[in-house]
Amino acid sequence: MKTVLVVAEYLNDKIAPITDELIASALEISAIINKEIKYAESKTSEVKVVHVKGLNTLASEQYKSALVSIIQELNPSFILMGHTSQGIDTAFGLAARLRCNCISSVNKVIEHKKKYLFGQGSKNDDNDKSDILFFRSIFKGKLNAVIKLENPDKMTLLTVQPGSFAPKEADIDIIEITLYASAANSHQIEYENIIEPQTKKSKLDQAKIIVSAGRGIEDQENIAYIERLAACFTGSAVGGSRPLIDMGWMPYHQQVGITGAVVSPELYIAVGISGSSQHIAGMKDSKFIVSINKDPNAAVFNLSDVCIVEDAVNFIKSYVETAEE
Ligand SMILES: Cc1cc2nc3c(=O)[nH]c(=O)nc-3n(C[C@H](O)[C@H](O)[C@H](O)COP(=O)(O)OP(=O)(O)OC[C@H]3O[C@@H](n4cnc5c(N)ncnc54)[C@H](O)[C@@H]3O)c2cc1C
What we know:
By secondary structure, the protein is α/β, with parallel strands linked by helices.
């Protein structure tokens, strides 16, 4: 029986939603790697969830110290953490301490049927013991990398991309293990407090039409055209991708994506947005998607109903000026 260990994520003492997604991905992985073992034969669950309670969630040094000992004790085949700010802060240092395999930002897992083509020169022979393949997007979502473990008997730590696995009811028992602060022995980072952002209530969740700007609008001044485009429609709101918020071009409450608002308007117009998985996770349920991008291979076009390959700034300017006339 191979164990998959999920590290539950906490935010302000509450379990973060990514934890349910990690459990869903753990169940998929377990079904693949334990397929030879019939469930009826097994009395114990192969998916375990470790809850590190009593530590502040941002102290990654303490997290790592607390987790190393419990992981070594349980000796799981896979350890799953979120590809979130907290997970990223902890996972890679943890993998280094455990000297285990590490794959980041995983968005899909499939069974390795041995016939999967890995290109010339790759090992694809009878000695290939890997029974599972991992996917992660690269080049801003334009390509998927398929990753095979060369040493599948070694422990592997994965960070899982939020929004990739739908949370689902577990049909097996989940064992919770609780650790307390005394398990940690490193205090290199002092925790003070979490400062909540000053947010205005977003109009995004009520808007029927959302016009969102990305880095492709090139200049902060061009946000005026995005606002004028949105004003052409009643019941509209303006959103943006995270870089625009990070650059201070828009307030945080206008950010669409996994770490911003998750929206599902009737119409979503993406202007100069590449279509990273983190942005897509926030708008993929929109009923109709129009995208404007000068790159014909932009990932956002993969889920768009209308794809406009144009310079976004010129296109929006002439559209707005014509519409306003
Ligand atoms: C943990 C984590 C959480 C994140 N959360 C979010 C989130 O919630 N929301 C979010 O949006 N991102 C989020 N990100 C960031 C995300 O990974 C991407 O970096 C971001 O979405 C890219 O924004 P963008 O598409 O505006 O910029 P880019 O990826 O730089 O794309 C710009 C696009 O504009 C096009 N372009 C350039 N010039 C023009 C032009 N003149 N005319 C037309 N097209 C043009 C380019 O071809 C390109 O496709 C997160 C990242 C991490 C690691």
